[in-house]
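Inputs:
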Amino acid sequence: MRTLRLLLEKEFRQIFRDKGLLPIIFIMPMVQLLIMPLAANFDVKNINLAVVDRDHSTYTQQMVSKIASSGYFRITGYYTDYAPALHQIEREKADIILEIPAHFETDLVRESKASVYVAADAINGTKAGLGSAYLNTILGDFNNEIRMKWLPAKMAAAGTVDVTYSNWFNPEMNYHLYMVPGILVLLVTMVGGFVAALNIVKEKEIGTIEQINVTPIKKWQFIIGKMIPFWVIGMVDFTIGLLLARYVYGVIPVGSLLLLYSFLAIYLVALLGFGLLISTYSDNQLQAMFVAFFFIMIFMLMSGLFVSVDNMPSWAKVIAKLTPVTHFIDVVRMIVLKGSRFSDIKMQFLYEIAFAVVLNGWAILNYRKTA
Amino acid sequence: MDTVILQHISKSYVKEGPPALQDVSFSVKKGELFGLIGPDGAGKSTIFRILTTLLLSDKGSATVAGYDVVKNYHEIRSCVGYMPGKFSLYQDLTIEENLHFFATLFGTTVAANYALIKDIYEQIAPFKNRRAGKLSGGMKQKLALCCALIHRPEVLFLDEPTTGVDAVSRKEFWEMLQRLKAEGITIVVSTPYMDEASLCERIALIQNGQILSINTPAKIIEAYPGKLYALTAPKVHLLLKDTRQYAGISLCYAAGDKLHLSFKEEGKEHPAGLLSWLESKGHQGVRIEEITPDIEDCFIAKTSTHE
């Protein structure tokens, strides 16, 4: 016990003396939490639309003005031919082309049927996909309006299905509400896991571990002595993040804080085990850094922070499930936004405990006092 | 029983190529100051790492203070002091904190064994609140020695303690070792400096992972094969080339501003024959005299016969 206290004392003293490390641990996550949710916004706005109008009728005018007033589109130009409009896409001045054929109005009135052509620049997949979808909805609405006008009131009323939306747990579809908890998890991950990994490798690199190994200190004492400080720092960082989320973004956890923190406690043990594992395989800080960077990339992209895990192909889902970060992001969102209870997140708890056991067990097996 | 015993220790870091240690056996008596003398890469550090339980040998066995380095590694760790070749204390902790840290790790206090380190610690005490990373080379050395001694070890392992330290500090350091020896601590020290060898009670000459010879420095010098001569002349460089071409020479090398040489067969005619041969080559003012060899000469003689 005395040894452990001594190790902790030494570790904290070193951390607070490291003028380079302190801002990384405490300032950097705050800055990121203040910047990232504001920048990472998936709402697609300002889609540039090039209109090829070969008809020049009242209907086409009505249609285009309806599109323009929707707020999603910015009409960049009117053309009479397709080629110059396509040229606009090539020059990245336009994202979508809407082509209205000649005799559009005549066809619509005579044959009560007319088609338009939509071409989207699919280089930016999200913009193309969402833009076309928005455009479809608007055209559908327009279509309905015309039907209403022409058909007898009775029939029209019978034929429409009215859809009303209600966004549960996030009624205003506030993007911050969705992103802030996820980013919070990522920051705790970076600080808790990787700073710890680098710290242990540093002892190897400088050679202090040799001197430590010749003392009667036990393997578990050294490991616990390294883990506790970063576990505490992880907790502190998460708390700071939660306060920022509350006072800057107005994200107030609906669920139990106790539940949230108990999950965090287990998550941090799993994460520190992962950091320890990296450190046992690296000889110097540079190696550890690159390995950590590789995994941070996977965590960022696979954890469901930006892309929903449900949309991934099945093999990718497996990878996502095997990432401790995924489950924690899931749980933080559930507890903070939905107010989920323990019974709702039992599975994630089990996953995280499994990660903690496997990662730490592997790391300890691989950590050899006698090389 | 001897304090440190190595029996047929071999170690390879790589599968192919020459091993780091090849069938090394020696023993160190209790209270002895034992020196491992050899150039860089001879295998000195590997021996230390095996004896301090940081490394497992491939073959052979070793005991330190009666404990087996493999089975009883935990006991060994409590009773040896180790100072690695590279400064391995916490650079961001102060002198005092480092000392306190290692004392507590060994379950003791600085005060309990202060008498042992007093002489050394007093020299660095004025800087006790300075971080170890900001100390000069000599002061780092003293701090490392203090930390290795703080639990009053039975055996002290010092891996090249004087490498990269100035001449004055080196001298001081060896004086400190003599005092520690007087306290009854067994000391195993390695050095690449041959002049330090004579300060040890017994030495082992080591080269390419093999022990060339083990004895007291005086005995090793006594056992020098044949006679050694020193040659002086105004132009030593050309002299070396020409002397080596003389038929009767077995060894010739530069040592300081002189040439040291020995002949293949002893005989009165050789020194005079060499002088006249050199004069015929155009060298003037060449003088030759017989000298007593030092450890370095012995080492060179040993390695050349070994090859």
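Chain B has two domains: 4-221, 224-306. Flag for discussion at group meeting.
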